[in-house]
Amino acid sequence: MIKKIIWGILFLIAAVIFGAWLTQDMWLPQWNQDLAQQSTEYREKGLALGQTADQQVCFDEALSSFNQCSGFACTITHGKFLKACWENAAPTENFCEGVPAYNEEKTEDEKSWARHECWGRDIRGEGCRLLMRQQQLLCSEQAKTDLDG
Question: Whole-prediction pTM value?
Answer without folding.
Answer: 0.78
